[in-house]
Amino acid sequence: MLLLLTVVGFTVLLIICILCIVINLSANKRKGTASVLAVMGSGGHTKEMLSLLSGLGPHFRPRYYVIANTDTMSKQKVEEFEQQKNVTENSKPEFSLVLIPRSREVAQSWGSTVLSTLYALFKSFPVVFSCNPDLILCNGPGTCVPICLAGLLLKILRLGRVQIVYVESICRVDTLSMSAWMLYYVADQMLVQWPSLQTKFPRTQYIGKLV
Questions:
Q1: How far is CA 172 from CA 100, 185, 186, 191, 201, in A?
Q2: Are residues 187 and 165 in contact, defined by beta-carbon separation less than 8 angstroms?
Q3: Of the candidates 161, 155, 193, 150, the residue with the CA atom closest to the CA atom of residue 174
Q4: What does the alpha-carbon distance between residue 204 and residue 35 come to, in Å, rounded to a whole number?
Q5: How far apart are CA 199 and CA 165, in angstroms?
Q6: Any bridge partners for residue 98, and if so which?
Q7: pTM for the full model?
Q8: Can you spell out the DSSP letters for 50-81?
Q9: Whole-angstrom distance between the N-terminal and C-terminal Cα of the chain?
Q10: CB under 8 Å, gap of 24 or more: what pairs does 26-30 form?
Q11: Which residue, 99, 135, 178, 183, could crosslink 69 as a Cys pair with Cβ 3.0–4.6 Å?
């Protein structure tokens, strides 16, 4: 019975997501622009992500920031970043903050992580399908896993042309992070900042130190 309800729930959710795309497609897609969905993480992840975003041109808009619902610091940092960006580019703000549950909290048991990840995945589908971004950009927080899986489904169903780009943290010198392991064959491009990582993981691309 529980399995049946789960299947029905996901089916209804998928139908709603498809309707969101059909309704919002013409409004969200504008010639000469590329929408970006950036997954923020606490601490160093957010700092690195904002540094990456600062190098993107003004045509990368609108920008959607996915933040864990318990991450108040990242929300504040994004708002400060966008305020400064608007002053620098002399443009109107074109960004949105989207809160989703964390896949895993610090010190959370692995058993309960399975359930929290499924819940986060369930919440991520409407976010990705309604935004229908051209680019999903992430750099390692656990929150990015369900977002990227939702983006993959968007491509499989041919409802969007999203590119998933994963930038491994500069802290990762010899081994990939857990998120990178999970998304190794999901991401269209996985960029690393140390040549030793590219040697061990041939699907990655070494691009030097970005931040």
A1: 26, 18, 19, 11, 13
A2: yes
A3: 193
A4: 24
A5: 19
A6: 66
A7: 0.82
A8: HHHHTTS-TTS-SEEEEEETT-HHHHHHHHHH
A9: 50
A10: 28/62, 28/131, 28/132, 29/132
A11: 99
Neighbours of 148 (CB within 10 A): 26
What number of other Cβ atoms are within 10 A of residue 106's Cβ?
A: 7
Q: How many whole angstroms separate alpha carbon 82 and alpha carbon 88? A: 10
pLDDT of residue 110: 60
Dihedral (C-alpha) 177, 53, 68, 155: value to the nearest 10 degrees? Answer: -80
Contact 205, 165 (CB under 8 A): no
Question: Looking up tokens 């540094």, which residue turns up?
Answer: 51
Contact indicator for 203, 191 with CB cutoff of 8 Å: no
Specify burial of residue 202 (Cβ count, 10 A radius: 0-12, 13-18, 19+): exposed
Check whether 109 has a pLDDT greater than 80.
no
Sheet with strand 95-100: strands edge to edge? 95-100, 63-68, 36-39, 135-138, 163-167, 189-192, 205-206
Q: How do residues 143-192 score in pLDDT, each as one tens digit?
A: 888 899 999 999 998 888 899 999 998 889 899 998 899 999 999 999 99
Q: Identify whether the C-beta of residue 137 lies closer than 8 Å to the C-beta of residue 36.
A: yes
